[in-house]
Amino acid sequence: MSLTTPPAETGPDIGLAERNAFPGDVRSAPYKPLPTAGRRELILRLCNLRRKIRVRGPSMLPEFAPGDELFLDPRAYRRHPPRVGDVVMARYPLAPQETILKRVVFVSSDGRVFLRGDNPHASTDSRTLGLFPPEHILGRVTSRYLPS
């Protein structure tokens, strides 16, 4: 499979992905880049309160490239639902043994979430899979792991 970069936007033509944007879309909401794991995150990892995961596909480019290692907080949503802009790991609905990494675009009143990849041209997400129930969300990505 070959990946191509989308053409540069010129003038008022905003492109197909932006025309299909939903209210509260992460592209219109500012979000902070993911920090590099600090001492606290490393200690939480040693205490088994963080999981280290590896990015496998191009759906989250340019923020996360295949092979990037991230820390996941599996207990993040025990007390509150995901927030818009959070990067989460979820069960893939068509193959529950598989997981996907996506960004939360919005949360419905019943707690289901609309997930979307940062690279919409290479992402299978809620645009085709629908809303994800809360039990499919496995945790929130907290930081980037960079070995020394």
Quickly list its features.
Umud Fragment, subunit A, 3 helices, globular, 6-stranded antiparallel β-sheet, disordered N terminus, 148 residues, single chain, alpha+beta
CATH homology superfamily: Umud Fragment, subunit A
- Beta-strand content bin: 15-25%
**Any idea what the radius of gyration is?**
16 Å
CATH class: Mainly Beta
Q: Strand order across the biggest sheet?
A: 1-2-6-3-4-5
Number of strands: 6
In total, how many domains does the architecture comprise?
A: 1
Cα end-to-end separation = 32 Å
User: What is the SS-derived class?
Assistant: alpha+beta
CATH fold category name:
Umud Fragment, subunit A
Q: Indicate the percent of residues in helices.
A: 10-25%
Low-confidence stretches: 1-29
In round numbers, the mean pLDDT is 78
Q: Could you give a short account of the major beta sheet?
A: 6 strands, antiparallel
Number of helices: 3
Label the CATH architecture: Ribbon
Overall geometry: globular
Order of helices and strands: HHEEEEEHE
